[in-house]
Records
---
Amino acid sequence: MTFRVLFICTGNICRSPSAERLLTSALAHHRSSGEVLVGSAGTKPVLDAAIEPQAAQLLSAAGADVAGFSARRLTPSLLDEADLVLGLAREHRSSAAQMWPSALRRSFTLREFARLVSRITTAELAAVVGDGAPLPDRLRAIAELAPLHRAPVAHPDLDDVPDPYGREAEAFEAAHVQIVRAVEAIGAALELSHA
């Protein structure tokens, strides 16, 4: 069964396509990765635009494919189809919940989700999904376990990846590093059930 991940940011040209392409690249080594569809959309997209050049350069340097991207608008149907919705900031998670209320239970910010899945233990995951389970089942399991680790945080703004659009190169690099680390945490959680 296919598992769909949807990343959301504002313009859909910097943060969400970066997360989309980095997660797609990270999942490529999994045999059943074709059963996971990773996409992105924007709340106020630059429709049909390619990935912003500074973001694209960082993605290419990280080995991610930037070809063929076209920015699109967040729609209720995209939210309805998504099994996991990851906003790049709290405002994007809120926009998803306002547009499609049933998406709330499966919506997080990317950094929040990364923090939560890093708390999942091998034993917890094994109780939900067995060793050697297909990638979509492992993703579904960590998405179900993540909310169990929610707790108040002192600085919720740290769950946001600041928007680098229109800013200096350092802002793009900082956003890229935050996205890479979050994607790595998700990948590590997937490996717990694949060891």
---
Amino acid sequence: MKSILLVTLGLLLVFTSGTSISVTEKLDQIVERYHQDGYYNGTILVADKNGTLLKKAYGMADFGKKRPLETSSTFYMASVSKQFTAMAIMLLKERKLLTIDDKLSTYFPSFPDWAHSVTIRHLLTHTSGIPDYYGLGASRPGFTNTDVVEVVKGIKALRFTPGAKYEYSNTAYVLLSSIVQQISGMGFNSFMQENVFQPIGMKSTVAYDETKPQRTNRCKGFDANGKEDDYPFFTTGGGGLYSNVDDMYQWHLALQTNKLVSAAAMSEVYSPMILNDGSTSWYGFGWALNKDAPASVSHGGTLTSFRTYIDRDLATGSVIIMLNNVGKTKRDELLAEIKALMKTGESNH
């Protein structure tokens, strides 16, 4: 009887191991197909609650120099940076250095009168009515947060009453970054290194501000024709981070275990915004929410040819991190295939 039990346990281990390898191979086959078709040049990490299922690089970090991507390659994260800015605000909130309903005019007294009606909450949830500085023609290589603040000073009126509706605004998150700097007395990268990146082991991540911190193993951006499409931005808050799949996975794990702020604070981060008329906007503090799947949170980023995305399931602990440096992608289709495989263990292609 004992020998039968041992054989049975051995077979179970073999089958369990085989299943894990099979899922990994299938994931690789899916991403490789998109890469071969010209729709994925980047790195990817897919994990469930038990650990990493796939971590791999596909394609080139620099087409001109024929330098291949590595899983350690760092990418410009674009709007995926916003969730980190929101975390900086929550850290200051937990330290009682600000409240979410502080008025914008508290930190920018030289702004027009409309700043008295805008709160930090409005900035976090894209409900402030402040126009996006990209739409004002105020974005250019080398642009800084200080430049954005000067542009905002000249805004005569908001696009709508704060809290009336959702309208994406990079300007709002640049202002949040500037608030973090005001309160902390530190540059944004310095604050993030000391309070977020280093404590959770994000060793290769930087917020690329005016101090021009070193960017480790950075890949360049290229358009669909292989032409370099990469130039420096020094604005932080709405974008500005450089990171890789390993660091983003550490970020995910830290959030899952409430390592940086309390569970109550994270619950607030993942809560939808109730608008002035009582309707709901499904964007939290730096995270896009899914009204049909409350445990699902995500965010994408796009600037020049960089395409970044993180998709997390708060209930199961699974995460999909996709970082691309070529502007030609089929993100939604790839994401759907990966999720289907993780759910069933079978590819739907």
---
Amino acid sequence: MIKGLLERGITAHQLQTCLLRATESQRCEIVELLLRSGVPLSSLSLPVEPALQRCSFDILSLFLKYGWDINEEQEWCTPPLLSLAILTNPDPELVAWFLQHRADPNKACQIGTTPLSTAVYLASRTIIEMMLSVLCPNPKTQRLRGELLHMAACRADPEAASIVQLMLDLHPDVNARQWEQEPLAYATYKVTGLGTPLHCAARTGIPRVAQTLLEHGADVKICDTRGQTALQVAEAYGNTAVAEVLRER
């Protein structure tokens, strides 16, 4: 059937919908036939989300076989598909598959976010530790992009303080303003008020996170790009418990 469509002038690019339907129904033989026929592969055009939702490792392997670059950014502001895997289906087995096939947790898009920063913001500690374990030569000496400590401080779940401590164990600059080392991101987001991880904690409102950052040298006097201290941010967001912690310093 596919051969007949191609012979009648249908281009391989026009068969993208067929590839999507075959992926959704987990028809590996049709997926391979379409890919062999020249349906284009890119992180934007691949129907990868249904494969991620279903942990369709055979189909993901076919994408790799026919030329998918697992570390290609999705868009200028969206990191590679390991990030989408975490957003779509934060399953340790799925993340392990990506890592086993050389997905780079530290591969950034143009704006600076990475799959690892996505995980630090919302995935379990187990998944974060899996990703850190594959970084070479050593996550403590390698430049880790994506503002990991800031992302951890933005969490608002029971694991937040634990993830912040995990990031602090990598010895980041606890008083760095967010995105200062990523010019495009800094220029894009500075109007929103880019600050230190302590500013993120003040916005999120978890006292233990703020306390942990203070114990590691966070400076309460630093202002964000809108001229506000972390205390002013906490007060503006109505986070009175964090504000009280900050006043004590």
---
Amino acid sequence: MTQPPVVLTIAGSDSGGGSGLQADLRTFAAQSVHGVCALTVVSSQNTKEFRSALPVPALDVRSQIEAILDDFEVKAVKTGLLYSQENIELISEMADADLFPSLIIDPVIVNRHGELLYESQTIELMRRRLIPKSLVLTPNHLEAMHILG
């Protein structure tokens, strides 16, 4: 029996289940892909509002990713909400080290309520360091406007 391909999502959680790791893993399963994940931020939100976010330190994000890469043959990596400059730098450095085949970046610069999640210098860091490493970039129209300046 052939094993399904493994895809790593590096993203935040959504307590409402409509986005983030929860949505990525459901999408992977629907496509017969084995999803693995590294958590970047724990958010408290629902369909009506975003309440709070608890960031996961970059050292812990790295540990999660390394544990996955040590055990699974990851075919692709998809990012979602990275939430911090440190996490953006971490993912950029790991991509520079050729640890990520087929890097797919969903920049998640605004939340579903249209609220900006990053300051301008963080968006610039993403534009300069992370986006050029992507095979595929999937911004929505508001995110594309921020990326393009």
